[in-house]
Amino acid sequence: MNASEVLVKALENENVEYIFGVPGEENIDFLEALRKSKIKFILARHEQGAGFMADIYGRLTGKAGVCLATIGPGATNLVTPLSDAYLDRVPIVAITGQADTSKMHKESHQHIDVVSMLKPITKWNTRISRPDIVTEAVRKAFKVAEAEKPGGTHLEFPENVAKEECINEEFFEIRKVRRPAPDYKAINQAIELIKKAKKPLILAGNGAIRKRATKQLRILLEKTNIPVCNTFMGKGAAGHNYSHNLFTIGLQSRDHVTCAIEESDLIICIGYDIVEYSPQFWNPDGKKDILHFDFDQAEVDYWYHPKVEVVGDIASSLWELNEKIDGTFDKSRGEYAGKYQKLIHDDIYEYANDNSFPIKPQKILNDVREVLDDNDILISDVGAHKMWIARMYTAHEPNTCLISNGFATMGIALPGGIAAKLVYPDRKILTISGDGGFIMNSQEIETALRLKTPTVNMIWSDGTYGLIEWKQKARFGHTFGTRFGNPDWVKMAESFGAVGIRVKKGDDLKDVLKKAFECNKPVVIDCPVDYTENIKLTERLGRLVCPI
Ligand SMILES: Cc1ncc(C[n+]2csc(CCOP(=O)(O)OP(=O)(O)O)c2C)c(N)n1
């Protein structure tokens, strides 16, 4: 076999199902080997689209999503998805072509130093400089990408190496590595802190929905009745019906859930990543008692200085905690959260029957929630709509509301939806984007059509970069540099061969959504949104007096 064939076999050995990518001259040997493989090559229309597909695949499966690009401009287009994987802790492996190794010491067509370029945004990367290191490099790329905390890795595959004969065709047996369990002293200290607290509160982050942590978290909640809130990326960690669920924290302004934090005397952070939402917002004087459960030690941060750190596999840590918490635990200590839960609940359903047009964000999300089942998947893009989705959309299960919130990149939703449909063909997949973010990767509508992945893609159209206007209005009282024109979304969808639907009335949306999911084709829904609600929310929350 040549090195390309060995690389493909090594990827098969890792149980890779899909490679998302855009080819180039420098990887035609690899493609030729891939042609004969059972791995499906998903041709994307932009490397960024391919990278985001790999990203959502990684989030949903816990297995590294694989993306492919060529030398130079192909590789640079992967910078955004790899950065997203880096800060959102998503396992992906990127493979890029490269010039002949005999040309790397001098100026050469399309050659830039891609390994150096991607180093700061990957957990590990290397050049496959000789055919006989392929199998080791591939095993390491997957092992590192999938280990906690997950992230991206990158393999550069120069075109001359790709054709060379390979003498090493030994493939690794994939062996599971157990994650370390926590130190028993740390668990005992954690129990002491929890027992002493009068008003404990759990903050569940991104790590609380990975590696089976959710199951143990839910047992803990049942045993203790401790109130829980989650970050954008921790949505679904606690069930919607949990009696002390305070839902999502993360809008930077004051909110009902931050009042609960203010009242609480112990914040139990589970898989919380400060990259997602700075502790400065919820612990402004740095005085809160914090208990940290995570795969890694806590970052050093003035506003996040835990009293105790329980470091190790989160599911094991919570399991140990659950084993040691007995029937004497006073379950009434969560009752203080009831008043906040009512306020949050009232907010979520305030406009459930509002038929005004353009439609209020709250009403859109009520309708979406009614149409989607518990296990269906909503993927959010980034913008004002993301803030509303995070605050108002109630997720019942982990990984059913996906939000890029560490890197927070626009353009992820539409390509991400395609990957979600490949992973879960029987679930309804809805993406919601702003009109700014949607157009950034709208070329992937063609990919969805070609693959026959019938996702429904809703655009909240307002002709502006809504989130930026929201921030400008709050800070300066006016807007600048944010307005743009839109194509006719319905005609655009139709020109691709997809279905385009425009929402025309406030009471139309539920039917439109139901019809869209029955089409069995990719659908684009143009939904005019009433973003006057944005600044109203900021002002209302600004006036909020905590009922402590
Ligand atoms: C790739 C990228 N570019 C720029 C930004 C900064 N940004 C964050 S939200 C936003 C506006 C999004 O506008 P739109 O997609 O129309 O959604 P809306 O806010 O109107 O809901 C911008 C420009 C970003 N997060 N990602």
What percent of residues are in strands?
15-25%
Distinct ligands, ions and cofactors found in the model: thiamine diphosphate
Figure out the total of helices: 23
Strands, total number: 18
Mean pLDDT, rounded to whole units?
96
Biggest beta sheet summary: 6 strands, parallel
Supply the helix-strand structural class: alpha/beta
Distance N terminus to C terminus?
70 Å
Shape: globular
Rg, rounded, reads: 24 Å
Unreliable segments of 5+ consecutive residues: none
Q: Please state how the strands of the largest beta sheet are arranged side by side.
A: 2-1-3-4-6-5
In percent, how helical is the residue content?
25-40%
What does this protein look like?
39% of the residues lie in helices and 16% in strands. It has 548 residues and is an alpha/beta fold. The strands form 3 sheets. A 6-stranded parallel sheet has the order 2-1-3-4-6-5, sandwiched between helices. Helix 16 (384-392) links the parallel strand 13 and strand 14 (401-403). The protein starts with a helix and ends in a 6-residue tail after the last helix. The model has no long low-confidence stretch (mean pLDDT 96). The protein binds thiamine diphosphate. Thiamine diphosphate (TPP) binds at residues 382-385, 408-411, 434-437, 460, 462, 464-468.
Layout of SSEs?
Layout: H1 3-13, E1 18-21, H2 28-35, E2 40-43, H3 47-61, E3 65-69, H4 73-76, H5 79-88, E4 92-98, H6 114-118, E5 124-127, H7 134-146, E6 152-158, H8 159-163, H9 184-196, E7 200-204, H10 213-224, E8 228-230, E9 245-248, H11 256-263, E10 266-270, H12 279-282, E11 290-294, E12 308-311, H13 314-324, H14 338-349, H15 361-371, E13 377-380, H16 384-392, E14 401-403, H17 413-423, E15 429-434, H18 435-440, H19 444-451, E16 456-461, H20 466-476, H21 489-496, E17 499-502, H22 509-518, E18 523-528, H23 532-542
Parallel strand pairs: 1-2, 1-3, 3-4, 4-6, 5-6, 7-8, 7-10, 8-9, 10-11, 11-12, 13-14, 13-15, 15-16, 16-18, 17-18
This protein binds thiamine diphosphate.
